[in-house]
Design brief:
The structure is a single chain. By secondary structure, the protein is mainly alpha-helical. The protein is built from seven helices and no strands. The chain has a domain of 149 residues. Helices cover 80% and strands 0% of the residues. Helix 1 packs across helix 4, helix 2 crosses helix 6 and helix 4 packs antiparallel against helix 5. The longest helix has 70 residues. It is flat and about 135 Å long. Keywords: Coiled coil, Membrane, Transmembrane, Transmembrane helix.
Length: 307
């Protein structure tokens, strides 16, 4: 009985040991598979990173080319502006303006007439600012084309055939200085173009608001004027004139505030342009030297040398 029990115990121990070995082998196999998967994942990530780096290097130049080529389409994409819009607006403003002046005079508010004249005097044709915006957009296109010409000419026609320290110096200047200055000029051109567009639309809004104000109050004052002979009628006329002047003053203040802000922005851009201008050679590229042989003291006649 004791021998049978011992055999059973040893058999159970062997079975337990075999099970532990099998489990250990299974865990080792799982660890090996997991390690292979991790190594494969790292290799795939490294390969993807390398491909991304190559693609980024390949497309960086093409991206700059697309940016400059896109700028070349600016002239064709300019917004169309109705050149006769201001003329039609002025034709509507003139009779309404006269009615308002007549109403103010009849109401005895002569002090409001200079304000009306000031408001009408600031009516401007926004086409000039739209043209200025388009001009700056075209300048931006030309600037991008020039930068691209410098870039592609050097790296396609000069750099492959010129080696050494001087070539590296020129490349660094071209990459980090000259092209950067072109980009900064481009940003300034974009800001000025945007400012000119804002000026144009602010003036357009002012013109339309003034015409609306005049065309509403002008006929209204004409309707009230026949009743101004009575005390209630005159009170209504004076109240209407005061309301008109209040709205007009608010419109003038709004225009002055916008013009002041845009003028400050243009001044800041002007200072930035002056600073950037010093980085470019804007001279005539001449050393102003005398022609060769013009100074007789630099040349000794042969007869004097033999003496």
């Amino acid at each position: 009985m004791s021998n049978s029990s011992d055999r059973l115990h040893r058999r159970a121990a062997r079975l337990q040991a075999d099970a532990e070995k099998a489990r250990a082998a299974e865990l080792a196999e799982k660890a090996r598979v997991a390690e292979q998967a991790r190594v494969a994942q790292l290799a795939e990530q490294a390969r993807a990173a390398e491909q991304a780096r190559v693609v980024q290097a390949r497309w960086s130049m093409m991206g700059r080319e697309r940016e400059w080529n896109t700028a070349g389409q600016v002239k064709a994409d300019q917004a169309k502006v109705d050149a006769k819009f201001f003329d039609r607006l002025w034709k509507e403003l003139t009779p309404a303006h006269r009615k308002v002046l007549k109403g103010l005079t009849y109401a005895g508010l002569v002090v409001g007439i200079p304000m009306v004249g000031y408001a009408v005097w600031h009516v401007g044709d926004p086409i000039n600012y739209f043209d200025g915006r388009n001009t700056w957009n075209e300048m931006l296109s030309d600037l991008k084309d020039s930068a691209w010409d410098v870039w592609i000419t050097y790296f396609s026609e000069v750099s492959p055939y010129w080696m050494g320290h001087a070539s590296e110096t020129v490349q660094r200047y071209l990459r980090f200085e000259l092209i950067g200055m072109f980009d900064e000029l481009g940003r300034i051109a974009v800001e000025i173009s945007t400012t000119m567009s804002s000026l144009a639309w602010d003036i357009t809004d002012y013109n339309i608001s003034l015409v609306d104000l005049m065309t509403v109050f002008g006929p209204t004052l004409m309707i009230i004027m026949p009743f101004a002979g009575t005390l209630p009628g005159r009170a209504v006329l004076v109240a209407a004139c005061f309301a008109f002047l209040k709205f007009l003053w608010g419109l003038i203040k709004e225009l002055i505030s916008k013009m002041k802000a845009l003028d400050g922005k243009l001044q800041a851009l002007n200072h930035k342009m002056n600073e950037l201008q010093g980085l470019f050679n804007v001279g005539d590229n001449k050393l102003h030297l005398k022609p060769v042989g013009s100074d007789v003291n630099f040349w000794v006649p042969l007869s004097k040398e033999t003496q």
